[in-house]
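Re: beginner question about structure tokens

> Can someone show what the tokenized structure looks like for a real chain? I only ever see the sequence side.

Sure, here's an example I had lying around. Input first:
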Amino acid sequence: MTLSPNQTLERNRRLIDDLRARPAETPWLEFKENNADASLIGKLVSALSNAARLADQHFGYLVWGVRDGNHEAVGTSFDFATKREQGQPFELWLANRLQPGLDFRFEEVDYRGVRLVLLTIPAAGTAPIEFDRISYVRIGSATPRLSDHPERLRALWARLQPYAWEAGLTAQFVTGDDVLARLDYANYFDLTGQRLPDNRHGIFDRLQADRLIQQDVGGHWNITNLGAILFAKRLADFGPSLERKGVRFVAYGGPGRAYAVTHRQDGQRGYAAGFQGLIDFIDGLLPRNEHIGSAFREERPLYPAIAIRELVANALIHQDMTITGAGPLIELFSDRMEITNPGAPLVSPDRFLDAPPRSRNEALASLMRRMRLCEEQGTGIDKVLTAVELHQLPPPDFRTEGEAVRVVFFAPRRFADMTPEERVRACYQHAALKYESGQRMTNATLRDRLGIDPRNASQASVIIRLAVGSDLIRPADPEHPRAGYVPFWA
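And the corresponding structure tokens:
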């Protein structure tokens, strides 16, 4: 969200009030009167950015026009807009000497009748910030090289490792009323199983504890990416970058995208706030088979609900949030469902079942698990494949397509109608699922999985030979062929 000029001016004034009220400068805050030395400013930008990350601050600040000793606002003659260095505009000169690139911002502030200059410096995000290929840090009033203080360098790298998209800010300097109007806070308390506090202080305290919001200056608040992507009442309220991460659903009238679109929904709510509504919407569109029980007829969906729920949750959790203009996509065809999320996988798709779980969005994943919107870490794909086998569906296809992951989830089909590739993939997934549960795949278990008549055991044998020849499975004990089979990575 972009602040209006009046909001920006008011926030800057409130920010400077807070900075001046501090008893002394901090490692991420520096006051100057008129010092315009370009090299000094470059070193300070590096030092303040690195120090801000060490102190868990989103920004460092350099303020001209405030006296260092007593923090009196005396004004400044420093003019960043007209200053030139080596024939270049000063801001361009500075930007070209900072690595990695840094979105710093100079602003002139009319502060109580005196002219100040505020430089806002984002905290280091992915690596220590260098000026002219050297990293600096603030220690007291000194600005030494970071490499001369290895203990601080180690601490900085430790801080950089967990830094994630979720911690970024999507709305700044909003009032408490705005926070409550934009975030579905009641849903947050309901999903996390907490009692809704009877006062605003209690509400904000809990939202801040889960890093959905953070305090800004002058009694205002910031809303984090995590807070907005999970609990936004309307993602559009947070700008186009967040709005495009809404879940998009498209249903087609046939087996391909050339067929007419029968239903379309572009998600506008945050993932947690809108999750159950999305699942119910999908469930209402799914075709059903009639099942005759001992006394009643009942309709059952073609796709197991737990598998859809888990696959959708996985797409939300494991997407690469830094890819702009893209979000999770769910497509329903007459013979399958495809779920796509932006971002190359962190592990190979054929190892989704067994590889240690990894996520780009740990805070998002952790909170969604706490709210029971998805399975515990590492068990989701197990649940999907177990449900697929129980319903004797064709094996889902987990694949990488460009910079995205796509899962193709097929409608029921007889064994005779499966392709050879699908039969081999089913064999591999069955062997992996058996191994993960402490068992081994055999000809008999594969026949049960695929619905092969026991009189046609040779069909299962052919599939096993193909899977072995494709290096997807191997004999558990080559000396004892009847010992069963395990996946290639076992």
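Each token stands for a local structural state, so reading them left to right follows the chain. The chain is about 35% helix and 20% strand.
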